[in-house]
Amino acid sequence: MDYDVTTDPEFPVITVKVSVKDGADQEFLIKPIDVADFKVHLKAKGGFDSKVFEPIANEVANSAPGIVKKKVKEMDGHTVKLEKGIGYTIVVEGVSIPVQAQHLKFAQHDKHLLVTGDLHIQSGK
Question: What count of Cα atoms within 13 Å lies in the side-chain half-sphere of residue 17?
C-alpha cells in the first residue's frame, strides 16, 4: 500500500518556550509546549489495495494529531549552547569595537519573540 501524506495546515504550528538558563547567557532551554490543531490526509497513490483501504487508513491518520499533541507536551526541553556569544563588531574610523549581549531575557510582544538584555561594549582595538 502506498499513500501520499499531507497535513492541513501544511506546516503545523508548534509553540515553544525559550528561556536562558540561570547564570549562563549562552545556554538556552527550548521546550515544546503545544501543537496547534491540524489534520492528516492520506491519498492512495498505489494499486487497488491502497484505494480499498484508503478510508480505513484515513481513520487511523485522524488519530495522529492527538498523539502528536500528547507527545509534544511530554517532551523534555532541549538545551542549546551557543559556541560564540551573541554580538558583533562595529568599525569606526578603522577602530574595531566589540559589542556583546549579556543577561538575556525572553518575552513575547505582539506574537513575536522579544529578547532584551544588556550590551557590553569593549574599548576599541
Answer: 10
